[in-house]
Amino acid sequence: MSPKVDLYDNAYRNHESAIYRAVRIETYGEDFGQTSWVTTQESNEIPRLLGLRSDSFVLELGCGSGGYTLHLGETVGCRLIGVDINQPGVRNANLLAQSRGLASRVHFELCDASKRLPFDDNTFDAVFSNDVLCHLPGRPEVLVEMFRVLKPGGRVLFSDALVVGGIVSHEEIATRSSIGFYMYSPPGENERLMERAMFRDIRAKDTTESAARIAKRWHDARKKREDELVAAEGSANFEGLQRFLSCVHLLTNEKRLLRYLYVANKEHTPLGHSVVPAQFVSTDQLS
Known about the structure:
By secondary structure, the chain is of the alpha/beta class. It has one domain (8-266): 3-Layer(aba) Sandwich (Rossmann fold). The chain has helices spanning 8-13, 18-28, 40-50, 67-75, 87-99, 139-149, 170-176, 189-196, 208-224, 226-233, 235-253; strands spanning 57-61, 79-84, 106-110, 124-129, 150-164, 200-206, 257-265. Strands 3-2-1-4-5-7-6 form a seven-stranded mixed sheet. β4 (124-129), α6 and β5 (150-164) form a beta-alpha-beta unit. α2 runs antiparallel to α9 (208-224) and α9 runs antiparallel to α11. The relative contact order is 0.16. Residues 269-285 have low confidence and may be disordered.
């Protein structure tokens, strides 16, 4: 069994560190404080996929240190709430909002997103979550809650990097799960659960190859700065994270674990709507 490894506390605690910033920039090309598999291209597409405007009210589940939420506040001009269970991340996010002059329209709350969300029905124009739902138990209930707080006509977007695409050993599962709680799902399960939660116009995009590239770049960027990172997080944790990233790259590169991006609407389409299985959706079909 692989020992537990800390990714998130170290990442959020060292958010302002030049070393961690350099790793993020080399990994993603830009710095939102990321700890996910979201590429720059995907980050740029999310506002369009969600149909965001300056008068939108948006919820992010699993905001981390808040960098991407704040980016949307700056570039789109909309109001946003980010929630996360990690206290250092939420604290850092609110400090960043204040320092950037965005606290009047972007704020962050400590919240367990696997429980009932502390918001009224039909509150948000869009709800999104980047690589977070795989950390939450009770996915059917989580999707129902996302539907509940979304306004009619609103859009939901989330990604799942743990769709099982092939044979995975128990050692690989242990290493892939070493940084926290994880839920693995079979192909088509997210679409089924979204439809059961009453989402419509469900679309899916296979982003596995991009996730594999992110994992490799992240591993290599950290390796270049091994001495500084060992000093910051300890040798055992450094090596554990390197094993984790190598495992992610191997499994995604061989497509034994898949990552999908999902978008859907809270509105009923005419009779005869259909859900297209993810494995049949091309990379240019999600729009």
